[in-house]
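for the writeup, i need someone to sanity check this before i put it in the appendix. the sequnce is what the collaborator sent (i think, or maybe the updated version? ugh). structure was predicted straight from it, no edits. if anything looks off just tell me and ill rerun, i have time this weekend
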Amino acid sequence: MKTKDSTQPIEEKTAPAPHILMVSAECYPAAKVGGLADVVGSLPRYLNKSGEARVAVIIPGYHNAWLTQQEYRESHRGAFHMGGAYIEYRICHIINEELGYDLYVADIPGKFDRPGVYGDNDHPFYRDEVERNISFQRAVLQWVHQWEVLPDVMHCHDHHTALMPFMMTQCPEFWRLGMTPTVLTIHNAAYQGMFGWDRQHLLPDFSRDRSGLLDWGHVINSLACGIKCAWRVTTVSQNYLRELMETYGFGLQSLLRTEWHKCRGVVNGIDYDYWNPASDPYLKIKLKKNIDKWKKDNKVSLLTELNMPTDLPLHIFIGRMVNDKGIDFLAGLIYKYMIYRRDACFIILGTGDGQIEDQCRMLERNFGPHVRSLIMYNEGVAHRLYAAADFLWMPSRTEPCGLNQMYAMRYGTVPIARATGGLLDTIEPFDGIEGDGFLFRELEDYQGMWGIESGSRLYSMPELHSKVREKIMHKDLSWEHSASRYLDIFHEIIPA
């Protein structure tokens, strides 16, 4: 009779990497409106690269320029009744190995076969958002429900997908998914996907005694429902989670405090492969060794093209021209500053609210060549601005995490921002010797003027300015740390 030698090491079986399916309305480079796309386009790649997770992403099948140029392999066909409509759909796998993860689209004729994500040039805002979001979520769940091996975690992003944890646990149609762990990440709690009870027939059948899970404020609130039903809820920075619970919760404060035990704050990262000053394809002049020379050469190149002075501090704003971003405050601040002084330059890049766009155009008419307003969305121009600028403005009223300040620091541009949300988590206030940038508390003219003057003082001290640039460019803002936090959260809820 043979026995095992007790001195032999016992081989430990390592568990396979968990399979995560992320569901989102946006994903860069397939479909982008804001920071949601950057997160969903980068985080899966870093998780896969770590070897500790297998992540796939599914988004709606928009008919935009990028998606229509891809090759597809059909994975599934299905259909369902939604209200009085019969919805047919296809799930297609995009054949693109450069992404670093499997990307799928839900092709739903009549719902997403349009050029925009939420609207386009002819329709600033599509009016059937509720039907579109619900049809997308139902198609995804019906597809996943017939998988032989279910995913270990369903990771939902924002209100567009926040009804999925409810459907998985309360709708008999998806009974196999009832014990599949779910994570809901809130990128912006201002948008909650609310609609009236007269549209509850769009959802799959569920027991009416479970209606309370859908209700918040006497309407169906997608985001609130997701907070109630998901196994874990994450926000895109720790400080934003605190603000949502205490002051800026957009009506969700008490709910988030009730669900505090499953809430986590995880600061976003940025993709260092894409945001790399040494290899950025958008830059005419790439970084070699001398940071100061590289910054100056990019600045002179860009400002010469725009016919602007090249020897003054350059302040920039990049983003959506909406109230949340504080661009109206910045435009008014620039106007007041330029009336009395012309010792700085400002460039504004973005689109959004028509009145704010006109306000920015007026600045250029009155104060050119010291002010330029580029009313457009242009990724290449944004990269060149980050490389050329001395200071980036983010006077946000709310900023869940903020990515622009991280892009700016990666390219040696010092942020000047309001101390809110993730800006507090990612920018160390400059104290005259150490720090990353300048933070002010309120959108008051005197505090904004302090920001401009603080930038001018730093600009007038080249050695200190150079030291700050080098420090922020070497700050670790990558997805490496954030991805490990998400892995911890996944492992918290995956059954042993």
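The first strand starts at residue 19 and ends at 23. Residues 270 and 478 are 5 Å apart (CA to CA).
thx in advance!!
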